[in-house]
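Progress narrative, Year 2. Work on Phage major tail protein, TP901-1 family from Limosilactobacillus agrestis advanced from sequence curation to structure prediction during this period.
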Amino acid sequence: MANNDIQYLQGIDTVAYVRLLENAAKERGQLIPYQTSLDFDPQRDTDTTQTKQGGVPTTSSLETDLEIEFVHNISKVSDDLMTSLLKNKDIEVWIVYRKRRNSQGQYYAWYMRGIVSEDENENDPDDNSTRDVTFTIKGEPQRGWLTLPDDAEEELSYVFQGIGQVTEQDKTGGGTAFTVEDAGKGSDAAPASK
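Result:
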């Protein structure tokens, strides 16, 4: 791949999903609502012993720092994060890169397990309440590809809705999203008969 083909990533396109591990058979991972920041920092400490032939490096085990900030909200996800901290319950975390997809349309993602080790809540009187959640990750994070269900994709960017009633049979209320093929088209269809 030539350098001019390299795509860059923006922070807005990296989002986190979580789920209490005990709920893995009952529910899908949920998007943490209103994320403002996500810091993912896998690292391995190294030390060097100097010898007469040069330095001999030694490395420690992998440690992963994960910190997610978001606007505090009333949601199951918000409560599950606090439950992980208070009850020392394992939580699953997925970091999903919305702009990186494979040929099957799956998203590139990191998967890890751990616990919430800190949940800082700031409540300034002239600003939104915010939370800064720190995770202690167990073992080595795993890379892979995942499929987001349709409603998960809608959480990230809502879909066009018509003005009709939204029902189980008509999830867009009679609306149809604009597509590239619609560009420049006007009233090229025959008028409806009365």
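The first helix runs from residue 76 to 87. The beta strands are 14-20, 30-31, 35-43, 46-51, 54-59, 63-71, 91-101, 107-122, 130-146.
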